[in-house]
Write a structure and sequence with these properties.
This protein is an alpha+beta fold. It is built from ten helices and nine strands. The chain has a seven-stranded mixed sheet with strand order 7-8-2-1-3-6-9.
Length: 387
């Protein structure tokens, strides 16, 4: 059986050739999404008990990295879809069976609580609009995060976490495609091919069994990977796409630099170019090694039955944020080394530049994520439920 990583690596050249079309169409081709689904890409983090692959986090990261070497938009949709699939480990049996048993399932969703889940008999009435729903056009299963409200109340219901912290109750609510609508909003500088439009749900009944609590909650099924910090895995997936973009940018600029022109030396013979290229390579390799090491370390702890403490959460999130921003730094170097050729639409370098700087805007790897990490590193009391 071909693994998701082997499948992803086999697609790099084809994805690279079709990346301009994906960007122009502003969505990933439906047939390609179906192929990825059959390869298990969207089910990498779905528990084996539901027929999922339950891959190691290193395989998850390297699969996304390989896809991004070909087309960052495809990798991004695979990332958001597979991390949406991760929530199948948190759903009650009713919802898990209803939405995640299909071996060809394609998922899309937004964790952020942009919706309102009004308590009613048997479940909730869900209303909301979620921007950034990547890959939603092809997804039969759709997720929206929501604040919970008791009937007649305008104040969110509160929950108490294990450490005694009180915060609004958040539910991840799953609906079918025919229970929701899409508003075409995704007209952006980068990652244009992800089709990250707005998802809209209007007063739809969602059974309680089709919702999950994830903040401060524990998985109810699955293996060691499902005991890892959910948000840490999400951030790692985002960073892995960045690593793939950066590698693609270095591949592209190397091709440009070694190409000789009649009567002129190649760009690769410039000493300054050599220094900058070497530094970029070192930056990328170091960031990649740190992320994979953090994933391996966290997985080893859970496999041995050890709890994930604040230090481990911080190490994973630090590695992810560092990898994301290091990837952007590497792409910047490649873009500048590309010179005037990088300015044209036909150059992949300008797409890599736009894509990687769109990636760094994601809240899971944005600069503010370093604040709680810094607090933990400095030994200060820190709330870690969303790390």
């Amino acid at each position: 059986m071909t693994t998701t990583l082997e499948d992803a690596r086999s697609r790099i050249d084809t994805l690279r050739a079709g990346a301009s079309d994906t960007e122009r169409n502003r969505k990933v081709d439906a047939d390609l999404c179906a192929e990825l689904a059959r390869a298990g890409t969207f089910r990498m983090l779905v528990p084996k008990s539901l027929g999922g692959l339950e891959v190691a986090p290193r395989v998850f990261a390297e699969t996304l990295e390989a896809l991004a070497r070909g087309d960052a938009a495809v990798a991004w949709v695979a990332m958001t879809g597979s991390t949406t699939g991760l929530l199948s480990a948190y759903l009650p049996d009713e919802g898990a069976e209803a939405f995640f048993r299909d071996p060809a399932g394609i998922y899309a969703g937004v964790f952020a609580p942009m919706g309102r889940a009004m308590v009613c008999e048997g479940g909730f009435r869900l209303t909301g609009r979620w921007p950034f729903t990547s890959g939603v056009d092809n997804a039969g299963v759709r997720l929206g995060g929501a604040l919970v409200f008791d009937e007649g109340s305008n104040t969110p219901r509160m929950q108490t976490l294990e450490d005694g912290t009180a915060m609004p109750e958040i539910r991840s609510c799953f609906v079918r495609a025919d229970q929701s609508n899409i508003v075409d909003t995704w007209k952006t500088s980068g990652l244009r091919g992800t089709g990250s439009h707005d998802l809209v749900v209007e007063d739809v009944f969602v059974p309680a069994g089709h919702t999950a609590a994830i903040v401060g909650a524990h998985a109810v099924r699955g293996g060691a990977v499902h005991r890892l910090p959910l948000f840490g895995l999400l951030a790692s997936g985002i960073a892995s796409v960045g690593l793939g973009i950066a590698r693609a940018a270095l591949d592209e600029v190397k091709t440009l630099l070694v190409r000789k022109k009649p009567g002129r030396k190649s760009g690769a013979e410039s000493e300054l170019t050599q220094v900058n290229f070497a530094r970029a390579e070192g930056t990328l390799c170091a960031a990649r090694a740190l992320l994979l090491h953090a994933l391996d370390e966290a997985m080893e702890r859970t496999a041995q039955g050890d709890p994930i403490d604040g230090d481990t959460k911080a190490a994973l999130r630090l590695a992810a944020t560092h990898a994301a921003w290091s990837s952007a730094e590497v792409v910047d170097v490649a873009y500048h080394l590309g010179g005037g050729a990088a300015l044209y639409d036909k150059s992949p370098l300008q797409r890599h530049f736009r894509d990687v700087h769109t990636m760094t805007q994601h809240i899971m790897v944005a600069q503010p994520t370093l604040k709680p990490i810094g607090r933990i590193l400095l030994g200060l009391p820190t709330q870690t439920a969303q790390l």
